[in-house]
Amino acid sequence: MAKKQKYYVVWQGRKTGVFTDWKECEKQIKGMEGAQYKSFDTLQEAEKAIQRSYWEFVRKGGAKPEIKPAPASIGKPILNSLVVDAAWNTATGDMEYQGLYLQTKEKLFLMGPFADATNNIGEFLAIVHALSYLQRLNSEIPVYSDSKTAIGWVMKKHANTKLELTPRNKPVFELLQRAERWLAANKFKNPVLKWETTYWGENPADFGRK
């Protein structure tokens, strides 16, 4: 009897999206702390699931996990800060990103959607956009992102993406080049910090489409 096809949703991993092969899914989550994934019987179920919260599918009644008390080394988020996040649609490949002022939740910028991009690219562009935005205001407040990958790219001043250039995503690559040039040409004093979801809850700039 043939093995039934499964579809694997990765909400949080090296790459996010819907995967049709377990080995490919495993590459995204193996050894990664806080990985979020689940299998589904149909592609339709998986594509709907990726647009919603992971916790709706792994806990009875959709209950979210209890937020852990933050250790002293982490503490609480700095309210006088800018927090960013990106959203990537696994069905269309569209990406968008935004930034909020944490204390008031005021939306400071929203960009996209951009065709045929990735979530990591969106997170990277969001951080650089925030740094540029704050530089124009002569502000040195922190920038929060929940993407270790994007923060690492910013620190190295290079987006290490494997995405291939196509006519549809040419505008995204142009933005990446502008962002890398900005990082190379500018110094910033703003701390770029990790949003600690485990202790602080969901990133306030999240689009709510997981």
Automatic annotation (TrEMBL):
Gene3D superfamilies: Ribonuclease H-like superfamily/Ribonuclease H, Ribonuclease H1, N-terminal domain. It comes from the Bacteria. Its EC number is 3.1.26.4. Its main location: cytoplasm. It is an enzyme of class 3 (hydrolase). It is found in: Cytoplasm. Pfam families: Cauli_VI (PF01693), RNase_H (PF00075). It catalyses: Endonucleolytic cleavage to 5'-phosphomonoester. Residues 76-210 form the RNase H type-1 domain. PROSITE patterns: RNASE_H_1 (PS50879). The keyword Nucleotide-binding does not apply. InterPro entries: Ribosomal_bL9/RNase_H1_N, RNase_H1_N, RNase_H1_N_sf, RNase_H_bac, RNaseH-like_sf, RNaseH_domain, RNaseH_sf. Keywords: Cytoplasm, Endonuclease, Hydrolase, Magnesium, Metal-binding, Nuclease. Belongs to the RNase H family. Endonuclease that specifically degrades the RNA of RNA-DNA hybrids. This is Ribonuclease H. It comes from Ravibacter arvi.
